[in-house]
Structures are given as structure tokens and as C-alpha cells.
């Protein structure tokens, strides 16, 4: 019994140690067929990985090939690679979030080398070397005052990666960091507002959307949040206070009056719309029947 427990322990522990290291680099040919595959080690930054030099050498030697990183069901093209410890044969890879595609093969079935012990043992020293000796790479890697951070472009890529993969809480966190650097960036403000809406934090969504200029799209989104909350007076107030007089906002007011059982007021919006947009007038009239 004791020997059985020891065997089970020895089988489980390696899996626990390397469970988070499920990242790979592959050399693929012109048809994206995997030629050589190597296990690699993620770092504390989602776009930076530690690898042996071997896959880079294979890539250089293989005609019309490219390097890709495979992780969590996706592949990412490698946009840069740097040798950080030639004696130990260690390099780092920087991936391109914008080039992400769904994983189309099983990495474990195509591996040339699974051994990442040297990478694990040197992980911290490799990061330290990246921070210390690559002065020419500061902008690329976003290194500042001896501490590795993301550059603005890396933050944008990371935020979009989280946004597109449905990790909206993480995307919000990154976008909010970007907003601190550029507080008047309307594109980022809008993204944060919409992401808060998607996670159903309507109060925060409204807060950010109201930071934007009062155009039809913004007012309609804010009014829509009030409608979801069944705060029809709030929805009407934000439209009336906007000073805008567009057909769509009159149509939206008609819907709000309809939802709040004020059909007479809703029909008044139909009359206004008849002189502005016949199609919207007819749609609202059909709703009120």
C-alpha cells in the first residue's frame, strides 16, 4: 500500500509542476504544417515566452518556414526572437496577438522536444537578463527603469486579446491602465463603457459612456441601460437633456413611453416622426397597435 501511494505521488507531482507550462513553439512550413515542435515556458507577460535556441535554428534552416506559438487552443505568429543565454541555449519569443488563429493540430502529437527543465531552472535569470542587457530593445519590450512593463502598443494588443477572447474583466483592467496615460482618449473610454455593459455592470457602463460627447449613439446606449434597469424616467431624462433632436431618439422616446404605459405621449412621438422619418413613424405606430 505504501509503495502504491509513492507511485501515485510520483505520477501526479510532475503533472502539477508543469501543468501551467502548456505552451509550445512550432516551426511550420508554407502550408502551416508543423515540422518541429518544442515545449516552452510562459512568463508573467502573456506575449513573452522562454524557449531553447533549437527551434530558432530549425526555423532558419527550413526554407519558407515560420515560427508559431501554440497555447490554450490558439496559435500566435512569433514576431521576434532574441538569444539571451547562448551558453545554455536559451532565447525569448515575442508573439503577435493580432495574428491569433484557432489551433488546428494537437501539439502533444507533434513534439520534437518535451524537456523544459533547463527553461524552468533559468526562468527568473532569463527575465532579469532581458531587463538588464537589452538596452536596444527597451521600446520593443516596454522596459523602463529596470522593470519590465508593457509599452503602449503592447497594452493595446493585450487588451484586444482579452476582449476578443471574452476575458472582459481583464480587458477592462488593461484599458483602464491605458486611460490613465491618455485620459481623453474617447476610443478607450467607449471600449471600457461597452465592456462594463457586457459584464452587466450598468452603473460603471453609464459612468464611462457619459464621459463621451453627447451624440446619438452615446445617448441611445445610455438610455438603453436605463431601459434595461426599467428606469424609464431616467431614460427620458438623458434623452431630453442631450439637446439632440434626431429621428431615432424620438423613436426611442416613443418606445419608452410605450413601455411605461404612456401611449398618448408615444403617439405624440409618432406625429413628430411623420415629419422626420416615415419608416420610423410607421414602425412605432405598428408597435402601439
Describe this structure in words.
- The chain is of the alpha+beta class.
- It folds into two domains: 123 residues, Thrombin, subunit H, CATH 2.40.10.10; 137 residues, Tetratricopeptide repeat domain (Serine Threonine Protein Phosphatase 5, Tetratricopeptide repeat).
- Helix content is 52%, strand content 17%.
- The strands form two sheets. A six-stranded antiparallel β-barrel has the order 1-2-3-6-5-4. The protein has a two-stranded antiparallel ribbon with strand order 8-9.
- Helix 6 packs antiparallel against helix 7, helix 8 packs antiparallel against helix 9 and helix 13 runs antiparallel to helix 14.
- The protein is elongated and about 80 Å long.
Question: Which SSEs are present, and which pair or pack?
Answer:
Elements lengths: L1 H17 L4 E6 L5 E9 L5 E5 L1 H8 L4 E6 L2 E12 L4 E6 L5 E2 L14 H5 L1 H11 L4 H4 L1 E2 L2 E2 L3 H13 L3 H14 L4 H13 L3 H8 L6 H13 L3 H9 L6 H13 L3 H12 L3 H11 L1
Antiparallel strand pairs: 1-2, 1-4, 2-3, 3-6, 4-5, 5-6, 5-7, 8-9
Helix pairs in contact: 6-7, 7-8, 8-9, 9-10, 10-11, 10-12, 11-12, 12-13, 12-14, 13-14
> Alpha-carbon distance between the termini?
78 Å
Mean pLDDT: 82
The ordered string of helix (H) and strand (E) elements is: HEEEHEEEEHHHEEHHHHHHHHH
Strand fraction equals 15-25%
Tell me the structural class: alpha+beta
Under CATH, the homologous superfamily of the largest domain reads: Tetratricopeptide repeat domain
The structural domain count equals 2
The general outline is elongated
Amino acid at each position: 500500500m505504501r509503495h502504491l501511494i509513492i507511485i501515485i505521488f510520483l505520477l501526479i507531482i510532475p503533472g502539477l509542476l508543469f501543468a501551467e507550462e502548456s505552451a509550445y513553439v512550432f516551426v511550420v512550413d508554407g502550408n502551416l504544417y508543423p515540422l518541429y515542435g518544442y515545449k516552452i515556458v510562459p512568463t508573467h507577460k502573456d506575449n513573452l515566452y522562454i524557449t531553447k535556441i533549437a527551434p530558432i535554428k530549425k526555423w532558419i534552416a527550413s526554407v519558407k518556414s515560420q515560427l508559431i506559438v501554440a497555447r490554450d487552443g490558439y496559435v500566435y505568429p512569433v514576431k521576434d526572437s532574441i538569444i539571451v543565454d547562448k551558453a545554455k541555449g536559451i532565447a525569448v519569443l515575442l508573439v503577435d496577438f493580432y495574428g491569433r488563429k484557432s489551433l488546428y493540430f494537437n501539439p502533444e502529437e507533434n513534439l520534437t522536444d518535451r524537456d523544459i527543465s533547463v527553461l524552468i531552472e533559468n526562468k527568473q535569470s532569463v527575465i532579469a537578463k532581458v531587463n538588464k542587457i537589452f538596452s536596444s530593445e527597451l521600446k520593443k519590450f516596454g522596459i523602463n527603469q529596470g522593470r519590465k512593463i508593457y509599452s503602449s502598443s503592447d497594452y493595446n494588443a493585450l487588451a484586444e486579446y482579452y476582449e476578443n477572447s471574452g476575458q472582459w474583466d481583464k480587458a477592462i483592467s488593461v484599458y483602464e491602465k491605458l486611460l490613465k496615460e491618455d485620459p481623453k482618449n474617447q476610443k478607450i473610454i467607449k471600449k471600457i463603457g461597452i465592456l462594463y455593459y457586457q459584464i452587466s455592470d450598468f452603473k460603471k457602463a453609464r459612468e464611462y459612456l457619459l464621459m463621451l460627447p453627447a451624440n446619438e449613439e452615446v445617448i441611445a446606449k445610455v438610455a438603453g441601460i436605463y431601459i434595461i434597469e426599467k428606469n424609464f424616467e431616467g431614460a427620458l431624462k438623458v434623452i431630453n437633456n442631450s439637446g439632440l433632436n434626431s429621428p431615432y431618439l424620438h423613436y426611442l422616446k416613443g418606445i419608452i413611453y410605450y413601455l411605461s404605459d404612456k401611449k398618448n405621449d408615444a403617439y405624440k412621438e409618432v406625429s413628430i416622426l411623420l415629419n422626420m422619418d416615415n419608416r420610423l413613424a410607421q414602425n412605432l405606430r405598428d408597435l402601439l397597435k
